[in-house]
Every structure is written in C-alpha cells, then in structure tokens.
Write a structure and sequence with these properties.
There is one protein chain. The protein is of the alpha/beta class and 340 residues long. Helices cover 43% and strands 17% of the residues. The protein contains twelve helices and 14 strands. Strands 3-2-4-5-6-13 form a six-stranded parallel sheet, sandwiched between helices. Helix 9 links the parallel strand 7 and strand 8. Helix 1 packs across helix 3, helix 8 packs parallel to helix 9 and helix 10 packs across helix 11. The longest helix is centred in the C-terminal third of the chain and has 17 residues. The relative contact order is 0.13.
C-alpha cells in the first residue's frame, strides 16, 4: 500500500478563480439550468485552467453516479485482441461485475489522442472507475487517471515501483517453477521465448527463467533468449531462430500459451519431437493448452481470481475513496501435461 497523488483542485478553488459562489460552480458542473451564459463560460474557463475534476464520491452521495466501469485495453496492435488472454480476462471481469450494479464498458486506447479523449470522457463523470490491462512500461494513462482522482486498478503493472492499485500473478515464481521442472526431467539446454521487453510481465518471466538456471549452476547466455510478442506467429519465428542458434536445445519456456503453440509448430516443421527431443512449457493455462499436440504443460495464471480481485478493489475505491493504493499478487500453479 502507499500514498495516492495529492493536491487536485477543489470546487472552492474553481469558484474563487471564476469569481462566483460554490453553488454556481456546482450547477455548471452538473449542467443545471439557471446560470447565465457568461457566468457558465467563466466557470468552464476556470475548470479548464485549474484542471478541476468533479468529486465522484460527492456525486455518488447526490445520486449522480454513472453506474459504469470502463475496461480499457491499451494494446496498440489489433491482432492481439484475437489472442485467448483478452477474451479470458474480459469474461472473468464480466462475471465478477455481474449483479454488482455497474455496467462494463469496453474501450481501446492506443494513441496519445485516444488517451487524452478517454481521460476527458472519464473526468466528465461518465464512468465511476477504470480497469486497465495490457499496459506497457511507458504508458502514462494510469498516472493521468490517478492524478484526476479516478478510481483505477491495473491488471499487472508497469514496473516494480508501480504507484497505482494493481492485481498481478507471481510471474517470476511461475517461470522459476517451470524451469525447475525442466531441470528435474533432465533438460540442460534450456531456452526461453519472451514477451515484449517493454512489458513488466515479460521481464518477470524472463527473470524467473534466469534465476532457475542460475540456481542450477547453468549459464544464462543472451543467445538462449529469443524475443516474442505473446502471439502464435511470434512464437514460431522465435523458436526457429533458437533452433538455428542452438540445435542442441532440449527444453523451452514460452512466455505464453499462444507463444508455446507457435513454438510447437516450429519444432514440428524442424522434425523435432515433443517432448522426446525438446520439452515445451507455456504460461497462462488457456483452453488451447488442452488442444495442442501434445497437450501443453503450462503455468496457470488464476485469471478468474485476478478478474474478481480487480473488481473488488475498484468497487471498494469507488465506495470508500482511500488515500492508499493496494497491490495484490496471486500465486501461479504448474500444470504438467504431455509436452514436458
């Protein structure tokens, strides 16, 4: 837990800047009648100059809550939305919100212009809180929302120093357990296919891979690491590169199940048997892990628990605005099938 961003402008400060009373500002904010146009413009100018955001808690007490929660996906590449991860987490969050009251609104934010548009939309009181997923390291949107005092919860985090509420899986520990399993089955030439390097989740899984090899006294040379992008195509390309560099590979940790599926395709194309020649482990435990040939050994992320916990944290922040952010990390589990 930690301190939230302080110092947002108040209704009183807007009133002083515009030279009007507090009640007049409130009527302008709520689009009420009975305000002269010149006065309305003065108040709106003061709001813009100060960056004032209406107090959602006060609006709630006045019965003016939006009764809507935004789930924002910030992944810039459209094809990513065809991957199982997105449908799985949307389903988990939707189930967690069912019966709680708020409507779930799904929106895409992929550019600076869309980021600013969404911020203004949210600041206008159209949503009561925001859930964010697929956030990259340099994305300022979580900070922008926090500074606007909008209840916000991330799925995952941008770095180890995240200062916005988040729910994450133990990605480092999960990767470490996967590599430990490969080592326990006699594998020694173990490579990994990562996710995008600007995503903290990918960095954590790579860290777990390196820690497990180091604990076994094995080298963690850069040539045994191939960059992927959490897609089947990216996994196929990365596996082909690894085979070119190190034909002796006998084990692979893929940063996602979709990446692992692509790796399996590349291994088949190269005439390698799985697991006899090369053992493969994925990460996530999507339904596709049961459909690959052979079925995929993988690290299970508790996506239902993640979605439920994100919703719980967000609803708590909406109901009881707090000075603290909260960080929750949930355990992963290695699920052993035929591929390793």
């Amino acid at each position: 837990m930690g301190r939230r961003h302080p110092g947002a402008p108040t209704l009183e400060e807007v009133a002083a800047r515009a030279g009007v009373g507090r009640g007049t500002v409130s009527r302008v904010v709520n689009n009420a009648a009975g305000v002269k146009e010149s006065t309305r413009r003065a108040v709106q100018r003061a709001i813009a100059e100060l960056g004032y955001v209406p107090n959602l808690a006060a609006r709630s007490l006045a019965g003016q809550r939006a009764d809507a929660v935004a789930l924002v996906m910030t992944e810039p590449r459209w094809r990513q939305f065809a991957e199982p991860f997105f449908s799985e987490i949307v389903h988990a969050i939707g189930d967690a919100l069912a019966g709680t009251g708020p409507q779930l609104l799904l929106t895409l934010v992929r550019s600076d212009a869309e980021r600013q548009r969404f911020l203004e939309y949210a600041r206008g009181g159209r949503v009561d809180g925001v859930l964010l997923m697929s956030v990259h390291a340099d994305d300022p949107l979580p900070d922008m929302l926090a500074e606007a005092r909008l209840p916000t919860v991330l799925m995952g985090r941008r770095s180890g120093e995240e200062r916005v509420s988040y729910v994450d899986a133990d990605n480092t520990g999960g990767a470490r357990s996967a590599v430990a399993h490969l080592l326990a089955t006699g594998r020694r030439a173990i490579a990994t296919i990562t996710g995008p390097p600007d995503m903290y989740v990918a960095q954590c899984r790579l860290r777990g891979y390196r820690e497990a090899l180091a604990s076994a006294g094995l080298d963690t040379r850069p040539s045994w690491v191939a960059e992927g992008d959490f897609t089947i195509e990216g996994g196929h390309r990365a596996m082909a590169r690894l085979l070119e560099r190190h034909p002796e590979i006998d084990g692979v940790l893929a940063a996602s199940d979709t990446t692992a599926e692509g790796a399996l395709e590349a291994l088949r194309a190269a005439g390698r048997r799985v697991p006899e020649d090369v053992a493969v482990i994925g990460f996530d435990d999507f339904p596709l892990a049961e459909r690959t040939a052979p079925r995929l050994t993988t690290v299970r992320q508790p996506l239902e628990d993640i979605g439920r916990t994100m919703v719980q944290l967000l609803l708590q922040e909406i109901e009881e605005p707090s000075v603290a952010w909260r960080h929750v990390i949930l355990r992963t589990e290695l699920v052993v099938r035929e591929s390793a």
